[in-house]
Design a protein that fits this description.
Number of domains of chain A: 1
Number of strands of chain B: 4
Shape of chain B: globular
Oligomer: heterodimer
Order of helices and strands of chain A: HHHHEHHHHEHHH
Number of strands of chain A: 2
Largest interface: A-B, 64 and 60 residues
Structural class of chain B: mainly alpha
Number of domains of chain B: 2
Largest sheet of chain B: 2 strands, antiparallel
Order of helices and strands of chain B: HHEEHHHHHHHHEHHHHEHHHH
Strand order of the largest sheet of chain B: 1-2
Shape of chain A: globular
Strand content of chain A: under 5%
CATH topology of chain A: ABC transporter involved in vitamin B12 uptake, BtuC
Radius of gyration of chain B: 26 Å
CATH class of chain A: Mainly Alpha
Number of helices of chain A: 11
Radius of gyration of chain A: 19 Å
Number of helices of chain B: 18
CATH architecture of chain A: Orthogonal Bundle
């Protein structure tokens, strides 16, 4: 039974990390109908920035709390800056181009960012400093759930709540929902759609950066290629929940995390990534609109 | 004072002044300079942590590479200026073209190839160079050329799916892997020769193309891209992990090179033989792909690319043509897979990563989607350049990514645009004359 609970909790942890990345996909898709292939790379850059900042600060002997806060803020700032720039360079000029064009440019951006980090930094796996301490009060249950799992679960819950409030009640949140519903109409009622799109990219990138920081500190190492697999999995989660739907992305991520956790725990860990891909293919065949998505009819 | 053919530096300065004296130009240039300055400042900020700081977490040292800031600043400034210049030029060209009655003509190269006077001498020249190439240069050069030729065929194959039918396939490398592994495994278990495995590899890949095609038929462009990407990864992961079947990550070695009626060949001769084999295959591919594009099926693919719903409304069986596009595209990848296995005599899953698909996609996009000449040119540029510019080969993948983005923004039709059949009504007289011509 302990094993089951352990797998369940580790599935939840995985799922909540996927959710942080999947939200970026789903928000961007909801607003401009584009799969932002470079989003996984934004997450990787978030992890790298926090790695660099945290390591520099720890070398210069700052206290742990300061390191965590500064690394987190730096990761969010730079990831958002990258997300914003990617949108301006690779997607904005192609907003009225045929559908294939922004997709190809997104894939190009993803390859470009990966190799940029590879060349500017290194291709080795780097040890990520442990930013989350082992709490003493977690001692009795440490064999089932680690401290970092707990921190990840709590952080994601708080972030999700904040995001929900932001989208429900703030001005920019309302503008985002309006733009997602109908871009032309949003323009007509005086919403600056370009700014809304930028805000969406910034917000999504910041979430991915937090995810990057948390997972890197949880796993303990990073590499320039981590964004690729994480990106595809988060995308799978977003599709599973119904792309464009924010609660759907969270639900899909948790389902994917649990599936992976149980499949690797009870079946085999060799095919960890195959499960996610197969799940993706199966959903797209049988229910392309996802768990919470609405099937959209294409008007001619 | 140095003068060149009567042009004094004063002339140059006055030309420069004239450029600036034009009020409109001056305004545009000043604005562009200011913008580029801001862009380069932004990029300095953006790339600061990753370009400047490098930490060594084991020895706990930090190196600050301040010099990189200057490269980033200058690089982004220049690129931003060039991009602006290109966009301004493109706008002006578009305005001029709109003023003209007829749309732009085909590119020069297509034009040349259309004229019999140029067409045949050009073809003879190219085939002459291709035939004597291994004798003029070393076997090493021939070997590199063989690789480039393989990528030409791969590019032409992917061109059917992406360029002509407009289905973005990111898992193309899976079919390549299927071809390579089918030869490797058939040889290992049944001692099948190269020539027997070649069609089997192609057909097997085509079969997998149909198998992949079925589930993704209903999907729109972006979903299709992701599913094919997932498919490519699944194939690679299976090859990596199913040790009993594919010998896992260590791969299969000692695959025989292709035979020639049982003649014993030295390594050099085998390489040259391989080269001629590829020349033959490239010619066959060009012929088949060219015929396909102008067939009923090819026109149906174009219609599918342009507008799926309209295409269906014209009575085209969408399912059938999508499946044939997948199958025919995959077929060439399978063939090249077999050849790849025979050429390197060794296959392992590491040769079939997503990056390989990205390279082939870059070839198609750079050359021009739907254009055969373009794809050939794209493959030659992207495969030969990094081989000869060894110093730059580190930056190869970076460049491929940049090419994909830049081509989409600046020149989505590629270096050599595909021939787009357009009809332009030029008054009744001309139309009648055209009819007489036919």
């Amino acid at each position: 039974m302990d094993y089951f609970i352990e797998l369940f909790l580790s599935g939840l942890t995985r799922g909540s990390i996927y959710a942080l990345i999947a939200l970026g996909y789903t928000m961007v898709y909801g607003i401009i109908g584009l799969i932002n292939f470079a989003h996984g790379e934004i997450y990787m850059i978030g992890a790298f920035t926090s790695f660099i900042v945290a390591t520099v600060l720890s070398i210069y002997g700052f206290p742990l709390a300061a390191i965590v806060v500064v690394a987190g803020v730096a990761a969010a700032i730079w990831s958002s800056a990258y997300g914003y720039t990617v949108e301006k360079i690779a997607y904005k000029p192609l907003r009225h181009a045929p559908r294939l064009a922004p997709l190809i440019s997104a894939i190009g951006m993803s390859i470009l960012l990966q190799n940029y980090v590879l060349l500017a930094q290194t291709s080795d796996f780097l040890p990520f400093p442990a930013l989350i301490p082992e709490f003493a009060f977690m001692e009795p249950v440490a064999h089932i759930i680690g401290s970092s799992d707990l921190v990840i679960l709590l952080t994601t819950t708080v972030v999700m709540l904040a995001l929900t409030l932001l989208i429900k009640f703030t001005r920019i949140g309302k503008a985002m929902r309006a733009t997602a519903q109908d871009r032309t109409m949003a323009l007509l009622v005086g919403i600056n759609v370009d700014r809304v799109i930028s805000a969406t990219f910034i917000l999504g990138s910041a979430l991915a950066a937090i995810g990057g920081l948390l997972i890197a500190s949880h796993i303990g190492q990073i590499n320039f290629a981590i964004g690729f697999i994480a990106g595809i999995k988060a995308f799978t989660a977003a599709v599973l929940g119904g792309i464009g739907s924010i609660p759907g992305a969270v639900l899909g991520s948790l389902v994917l995390g649990l599936t992976e956790s149980f499949a690797t725990g009870y079946v085999s860990s060799d095919y960890e990534d195959v499960f996610a891909f197969s799940l993706l293919v199966l959903i797209l065949i049988f229910k392309p609109s996802g768990l919470l998505g609405k099937a959209e009819a294409k008007k001619v | 004072m140095i003068t060149v053919k009567g042009v004094t530096p004063i002339d140059g300065i006055s030309a420069f002044r004239r450029l600036f004296s034009c009020k409109k130009n001056k305004k545009i240039i000043c604005k562009a300079l200011k913008r580029s300055l801001l862009v380069s400042l932004w990029f300095v900020f953006l790339t600061f942590p990753i370009m400047v700081i490098k930490v060594n977490p084991v020895e706990r040292t930090v190196s600050w590479r301040w010099g990189n800031i200057f490269y980033v600043a200058i690089g982004s400034f220049v690129i931003s200026l060039l991009a602006k210049a290109w966009l301004v030029r493109k706008e002006r060209l578009a305005a001029r073209q709109q003023a003209a009655a007829c749309p732009a003509r085909d590119s020069i190269i297509h034009d040349l190839l259309q004229r019999p006077g140029y067409r045949y001498p050009l073809i003879i020249l190219f085939s002459g160079v291709a035939l004597v190439f291994p004798h003029l240069f070393s076997t090493y050069q021939a070997n590199i050329m063989t690789t480039a030729l393989m990528y030409i065929v791969l590019g032409l194959g992917l061109n059917i799916v992406v360029g002509v039918a407009g289905l973005l396939d990111l898992g193309y490398v899976a079919f390549y892997a299927i071809g390579a592994y089918s030869y490797a495994l058939l040889n290992l278990h049944f001692h099948l020769g190269f020539w027997a495995a070649l069609p089997i590899g192609g057909l097997l890949a085509a079969l997998f193309g149909v198998l992949l095609g079925f589930p993704v038929l209903r999907l729109r462009g972006d979903y299709l891209a992701i599913v094919t990407l997932g498919f490519g990864e699944i194939i690679r992961l299976i090859l990596e992990n199913w040790n009993a079947f594919s010998k896992g990550p260590s791969g299969i070695s000692n695959i025989p090179r292709p035979g020639f009626f049982g003649v014993e060949m030295s390594l050099d001769q085998a390489m040259i033989y391989m080269y001629y084999l590829m020349i033959g295959l490239v010619i066959l591919t060009i012929f088949v792909v060219n015929r396909l594009q102008h067939s009923r099926l090819g026109r149906a693919w174009l219609a599918l690319r342009e507008d799926e719903i309209a295409c269906q409304a014209m009575g085209i069986d969408k399912t059938r043509i999508k499946l044939t596009a997948f199958a025919l595209g995959a077929f060439w990848a399978g063939l090249i897979g077999v050849i790849f296995a025979a050429k390197t005599t060794f296959v392992n899953p590491a040769s079939f990563t997503f990056m390989e698909s990205a390279i082939i996609l870059a070839i198609v996009v750079l050359g021009g989607m739907g254009s055969i000449v373009g794809v050939i040119l794209g493959a030659l540029i992207l495969i030969l350049l990094p081989e000869y510019l060894r110093a730059l080969s580190e930056y190869r993948m970076l460049a491929f990514g940049a090419i994909l983005v830049a081509m989409m923004i600046f020149k989505p039709e590629g270096l050599i645009a595909g021939v787009r059949r357009t009809y332009c009504f030029q008054g009744r007289k001309n139309a009648a004359a055209l009819q007489d011509d036919e």
